[in-house]
Design brief:
Layout lengths: L3 H42 L13 E5 L1 H4 L5 E8 L2 E14 L2 E10 L4 E8 L51 H24 L6 E3 L12
Parallel strand pairs: 1-6
Antiparallel strand pairs: 1-2, 2-3, 3-4, 4-5
Length: about 220
């Protein structure tokens, strides 16, 4: 005769199985949503018609705490057209935001010009520092077309510090951190442009940025 304990055990197993299936399905949906969000963000900076490779999987892992703001590996997304390099989209971190890390994507074309900058995540103050989001203001679009040498090193600062980029009313730390992170991402690109489009994926250490007063080029 089937006991109550056996019946309860069967239901427990069935319940655990359903929970496991639900978790896996939810996990898959979250992963796909994140993928679609990332692709939309990448295409805001590098139009889909400009490349024909799988930009989501054509990646390179790199290390540069000095230039990319984190000891962890950062991902470089490579855009190619018929196998030829078009742009590199660099994942980087501004570690000195007002409330912590600001994770960014910086798209740089072959000529070294910025195709766009977007914020992936941050914890900046709502109504102040969150103006770095493209949905909140157009401030982040001001990087478009600039390069490592245009403006000059002095220009790669907020206006309060003598540069060309606006700060926010009541919030200077956040834009200052983003400007510095974008500038360092350009230095990283300049130092590693050829390696960034190498066909094989690898993890690479890169040189530290030049000291104050030194130039690149």
């Amino acid at each position: 005769m089937v006991t109550a304990a056996v019946i309860l055990g069967v239901f427990a197993l069935l319940g655990a199985g359903l929970v496991g299936m639900t978790y896996e399905n939810t996990k898959a949906r979250i992963a796909e949503n994140e993928r679609q969000f990332l692709l939309r963000t990448l295409n805001e900076m590098v139009p889909a018609k400009a490349y024909n490779n799988d930009i989501y999987t054509d990646t390179l892992k790199v290390h540069s705490k000095e230039l990319l703001g984190s000891a962890k590996a950062q991902t470089i997304y490579r855009a190619r057209k018929d196998g030829k390099p078009v742009a590199a989209i660099i994942t980087t971190t501004a570690p000195d935001g007002y409330n912590g890390d600001i994770k960014l994507l910086v798209a740089v074309d072959l000529a070294g010009q910025i195709g766009g900058v977007r914020v992936l995540s941050h914890q900046e103050t709502p109504g102040l520092g969150d103006a770095i989001e493209s949905e909140k203001s157009d401030w982040i679009t001001n990087f478009y077309g600039h390069s490592l040498f245009a403006p000059d090193p002095q220009g790669w600062r907020v206006k309060k510090d003598g540069g060309i980029f606006d700060q926010f009313t009541g919030a200077t730390i956040t834009p200052r951190a983003v400007v510095d992170a974008v500038h360092k991402a350009l230095i990283f690109y300049y130092l590693n442009r050829e390696a960034l489009f190498a066909p094989a994926e690898s993890v690479r250490e890169v040189p530290a940025p030049a000291k104050s007063g030194e130039t690149h080029g």
